[in-house]
Amino acid sequence: xxxxxxxxxxxxxxxxxxxxxxxxxxxxxxxxxxxxxxxxxxxxxxxxxxxxxxxxxxxxxxxxxxxxxxxxxxxxxxxxxxxxxxxxxxxxxxxxxxxxxxxxxxxxxxxxxxxxxxxxxxxxxxxxxxxxxxxxxxxxxxxxxxxxxxxxxxxxxxxxxxxxxxxxxxxxxxxxxxxxxxxxxxxxxxxxxxxxxxxxxxxxxxxxxxxxxxxxxxxxxxxxxxxxxxxxxxxxxxxxxxxxxxxxxxxxxxxxxxxxxxxxxxxxxxxxxxxxxxxxxxxxxxxxxxxxxxxxxxxxxxxxxxxxxxxxxxxxxxxxxxxxxxxxxxxxxxxx
Length: 336
Prior knowledge:
The chain is mainly alpha-helical. Helix content is 64%, strand content 9%. A 3-stranded antiparallel sheet has the order 1-5-4, with no helix packed on it. Strands 2-3 form a two-stranded antiparallel ribbon. α1 (2-41) runs parallel beside α4. It starts with a helix and ends with a helix.
């Protein structure tokens, strides 16, 4: 069974491993130079990275983010759906191979390969990007690179990509079992995996480790703020805690209670034409602060990176086990 599974699986696996090997080679060539630059430049590295390395930074992000989705679509979904669609599964079952063994071999082999390729990609990209990540976490001011805890970079660092790959693969297998048609199973796998990748960062990840909270005064010369939604919302930028992931903000009144930004603030900023001048903005911000308004910021500090990584890995592995159990139940009770 293992040899047969490998023969069915080898083309997709060879393409994926070759792509990761090519990326790893490119990173290995430039990585030592980036490390040397960080040792001499420190957090100012972010202003000295070459344009070619900037491009490689984003390519690495995209590859690691794409690997689990590609695995789910092109490895997981067709693995069993194609056999059920063509009827070739009867060949194995009629030769004394039980359904459970047939499924376990495919799931075990495929999951191991998925975790391996995602782990290699994540290891290479995390190693290469570590000087940039350290510079950003050390206070390097940049709009070009993401902190490690930013939802975009987070999913391309550490151990989480391996958990994502295992989940995507088993999700594809489960959907292939249920749908029994290859192309619809591939499309559904991509849609559901993408939905999970939106839901987890937006509503779940921030609760996987204890968050920190700080209250910032609203005043000129204080924490930088952005005025949004027609001056109905104020957003503070937490520059004093570099590398942090801000998960929520609330404006507080003088009594410390959550409250909307008063309409007088928008009235203060109103002009007859064009945006308000800087001096006018600072005066309006000062008036808002004099009324006792503050900004409460809830955030995950950079030091929570590994706590969040292991917690999210456990979450996805729990989903993998649940989907595996579902696959076993389905193939024993529903597939004929």
